[in-house]
């Protein structure tokens, strides 16, 4: 591929957005696979890296992007021409990631996906599906007939959590932060505004919460849960902190439990892969917003402000 150039979003300074540049197509070494990226996701984790606010960061300059999907161009381990998704092993964290037309990735990050899968779906389903599955089944351990409240219920993780909890036999209440999102809460959940969360609005006590927004929304949701109920914490888009009165916390007897896909990825992988088929068939729904790499600023703004509905993906095809 000498002489051929390729676009890449290069992060030069934490706290600034990467610049779109032309560069030579990178070459794969043994143990690495060269992928022609067709789509790559822009997620909160990627923005935390761009901002320099994550526990694992690359040396700069670096290419962000923890998840991508594309075609294998060269590899000792994966057949050329295979449609794959890539993530893990520090990709987009300490290693160069997927925000580029061509990416050289460790062979171990490459997973084949069914031919014909939309690359935007292939690069963006695993985290929200896997996290939602872990939250519902492993952490909140939702039982049929329970009443489950999901915050950020129109977001990527939140909307899938609503759908998976409902399939598990729960009665689901979906909480959103703005009125424009009420109609994006998947059926059959009852949609409620975060500012209007109250025992009356949710019609009684809640057995389990899956919280994807944190901050004051988490504090308010905790107050709705029955004694011995569970709160599975996924994310903190609405705030990294909240204060808790420890006397009230002990009295309430509600467990606050972290959901960490990095430690649970392997245990949910088979279920997440199975649900990709259902997503592709439209039996489960994950909305995707698509942007060209030249529209990164707009894509990031949609995600940062919470205006985005579902996944935000850069289309590199
Ligand atoms: N623990 C894990 O392993 C894990 C895995 C995946 C994701 N996450 C985290 O989970 C969270 C949700 O991820 P996601 O992919 O579902 O994100 P998303 O699709 O962007 O949804 C996040 C939701 O947060 C709400 N929100 C409230 N205040 C916001 C603000 N200031 N800026 C942006 N959004 C705001 C928005 O809903 P409203 O408009 O309804 O308020 C938005 O729909 C993120 O923090 C992500 O990092 C954690």
TrEMBL record:
<dbReference type="Pfam" id="PF00107">
    <property type="entry name" value="ADH_zinc_N"/>
</dbReference>
<feature type="domain" description="Enoyl reductase (ER)">
    <location>
        <begin position="15"/>
        <end position="314"/>
    </location>
</feature>
<dbReference type="InterPro" id="IPR036291">
    <property type="entry name" value="NAD(P)-bd_dom_sf"/>
</dbReference>
<dbReference type="InterPro" id="IPR051397">
    <property type="entry name" value="Zn-ADH-like_protein"/>
</dbReference>
<dbReference type="GO" id="GO:0016491">
    <property type="term" value="F:oxidoreductase activity"/>
</dbReference>
<dbReference type="Pfam" id="PF08240">
    <property type="entry name" value="ADH_N"/>
</dbReference>
<dbReference type="InterPro" id="IPR013149">
    <property type="entry name" value="ADH-like_C"/>
</dbReference>
<dbReference type="InterPro" id="IPR011032">
    <property type="entry name" value="GroES-like_sf"/>
</dbReference>
<dbReference type="InterPro" id="IPR013154">
    <property type="entry name" value="ADH-like_N"/>
</dbReference>
<protein>
    <submittedName>
        <fullName>Zinc-binding dehydrogenase</fullName>
    </submittedName>
</protein>
<dbReference type="InterPro" id="IPR020843">
    <property type="entry name" value="ER"/>
</dbReference>
